Amino acid sequence: MFGKRLGLRWRAVPMALLVLVLVLLASPALVGFAAVRGYPELAISLVDQEDLRTYTQLIKQVKSNEGLDDQEKQEAINLIEEKYVKSRNAKIPADKLNVDTLERAFERRMALERQYEKSMGTILNKYFSDANYKQIAVSVKKEDKILAMKKIIELLDTRKLQGQEKALALYYLDKFAPYAGDEQLAARNRQFNVPDRDVAVTYSYTTNSYNRTKARQYIDHYWNSYNPDFPNLTYIGGDCTNFASQVLHAGNLPMDYRGGWYVYPKQIPPRYPAPKSIGELNYSWSLADPSSWISAKQFNRYWSQHVYSKERYSGTELKNLQTFDDVWRKAWHGDVVQILRPVWWWYEPYHTLEVYSFTFISSKDIILAAHTNNTKSLSFKEIINRYPNYKFDIFYVKQGY
C-alpha cells in the first residue's frame, strides 16, 4: 500500500531496528482504518483515535535514527505503514483520551495521508512517463513535491482529471502548496481550492461583535459536557476544534455558510448525536467539506483571515519570560490557541484550545480549556515546556476585552 519495498536500502538500517520492523510488521497488534470515499480532507480530519503506542514508538525510532538520511527514513516509514494500515487493534476508551492520544491520532492521520500521496503518484504515472511519479509523490523532499504539484496543475489546466482523481489532485495541491515557498504554486492552489464565494464573517464583524463574557460562560457550561445542538466528535478524531468553534459561536460570531464555518443537524433530534463513523456523521450532520468547523487545519486557515490578529511562536520562544508576558498581556478570555506539530519541513495544527483564565500572583500563566481531554484548567506554560519544538498559533479574536 505505501512506499516501495524495493526502494528501501536495508543495509543502512541498524540490525536492531530491522528486527523490530520485521517483528511489528508480522504482528496483528497494529491498527487498521476504515476506507472513506469523497474529498480526503474530511476523512483525514475524522480518523478515529486508536491505540497506536507500538506503531508510534517504531516511527519515533526511525525518525531519530542518525544513521539514516531523510529519504531513507521516509522509505522505512512507508514500509511500516504498508502493514500498519491493514491491521487492527482495540480502540482507546473515551475517558482515556488526552494530548498523547491526539499525538498518536496525528501519526495515524499522517499514515492515511501517505496513502493518498501514493495514490496521487499512481495517477501521475498514468498520464506522464518522463519520471517515476509514484516515488516522487511520496518523497519528503520539497523539490519533489513541487515537481509533482506542477504536473498536477498541468492535468487540472487540461481538465483531464475527474471524480476521485480530481479530488485527490486538489487535496495534494492544497496540502503542500502553502508550504512549498513558491508563490506561483500557492496562487494556483488558491485558484483551484478556494471557491469563488463571498465570506459572511468579516474582520470588522468579529472585532465589533465578539462577546468574550458569553464565550467564557459557554466554556463554564460545556467544558465537561456536550451541547446537543452540535455533534460530539470524541469518537472520530477528537472534539477539540468542534468545541472551539462552539465557543466562538457562543460569543456572537455567526456561522458562515458561504465560508464553510458551520454545522447543523439534519434531523431533530439527530439520530447520531455522537457519531462513531464518518457515515454516521454525514447521516445526521451537515458540514462543509473540508470543514473549518471541526478540522484543526481548516480552522487555522479560516480564522487566520477573520480575527484581529494571529501570532505564531515556537515553544522555545514562549519559554522566554518577556515573550510570554507579551502574549499574556494581549490574550483575553475566548481567544484561541492551536498547537502545531512538525511535519518534515512544515508545521500543521493538530490541537485547538481556548483561553479561559489567567494567573498572575505567584507567576503569570494562561489557563486553557478544551475538549479531548475535557478541561478548563490546563497550564499553557506546562504545554510549552512539554513541547518546546512545536509551534503555537495565538488567535486574538478582537483587540482587548
UniProtKB/TrEMBL annotation:
Cross-referenced Pfam families: Amidase_6 (PF12671)
Protein name as catalogued: Putative amidase domain-containing protein
Classification via InterPro entries: Amidase_6 (IPR024301)
Organism per entry: Brockia lithotrophica
Highest rank taxon of the organism: Bacteria
Putative amidase domain location: 209-394
